[in-house]
Amino acid sequence: MTCARSKSMQACSIQCRGINPNEDTQPHAALRYNSPMLTLTTVARTKLPDCAQSIVDNAAELAAFGWTPATSSNFSLRLDEQLLAVTVSGKDKGKLTTADIMVANLQGEAVETDLRPSAETFLHSQLYARFPDIGCVLHTHSRTQTVASRLFAWQGYVRLAGMELLKAFRGHQTHDASIDLPILPNQQDMRLLATQIEAKLGAPNLYGYLIEGHGLYAWGRDMTEARRHLEAFEFLLACELDLRNLRA
Fold first, then answer.
1. Cα-Cα-Cα-Cα dihedral sign, residues 161, 167, 172, 175
2. What is the DSSP string of 82-125?
3. Within its chain, how far is the Cα of 172 from the centroid?
4. Contact assessment for residue 121 and residue 74, using Cβ atoms and an 8 Å cutoff
């Protein structure tokens, strides 16, 4: 089975789900919990090749959109309840190979590899630990996302309302609705940033957040859904920016 988007992306997404501006370089020591899992499970080892290929294929497409400049951004897929496949730090996301996909645990630590994950891997792990149904997390740095995060930072969110593409988000059946996309202040201390994010995660039907001057995190049950949510956020944020300019 291949996870190339052109060959049954939906089947790949199901396979790669678990059972149930430049990369940050700060050390992970402060983020570690007790009793980390540092060995791949049989399930994770089996799923890793397909998940790695899916991440490579989708990263190349997102890079072609211009959403991953200067080696920024990171992408992950759940392997099982405790492990995720994630992009390594400091690589051009448009030129990844499967060798650039590593495994980390829910504490953001590398598993069975000397490769270094981004410190932001901890933010992926936070989502997988909090929501067992999340199977994919995508983090990008498009110009639209970054500008919107700065422009609306003063109010702590961007309200997306009244547009047909709101129906792209799981659970939304009409354009006559609104989503408040949270904006968190940028922070190099991942533990502090994760604490601030945690306070926002209780909102219903939340599928993303912005970090000010940084970029967007979006997620879903699998790669297909996470891509749909990511692309919907990008489009809706661009509409908000355009409307603001036209009204000026």
1. positive
2. SEEEEEBTT--TTS--GGGEEEEETTS-B-S----B-TTHHHHH
3. 20
4. yes
Contact 208, 142 (CB under 8 A): no
Cβ contacts of 200 within 8 Å, gap of 6 or more:
182, 184, 206, 209
The arrangement of strands across the sheet holding 101-105 comes to: 101-105, 83-87, 74-78, 136-140, 215-220, 208-211, 178-184, 157-161
Instruction: Per residue of the chain (248 residues), give pLDDT as tens.
Output: 434 343 334 444 444 544 333 444 333 333 333 334 578 999 999 999 999 999 999 999 999 999 999 999 999 999 999 999 999 999 999 999 999 999 999 988 899 998 988 889 999 999 999 999 999 999 999 999 999 999 999 999 999 999 999 999 998 888 988 999 999 999 999 989 999 999 999 998 899 999 999 999 999 999 999 999 999 999 999 999 999 999 97
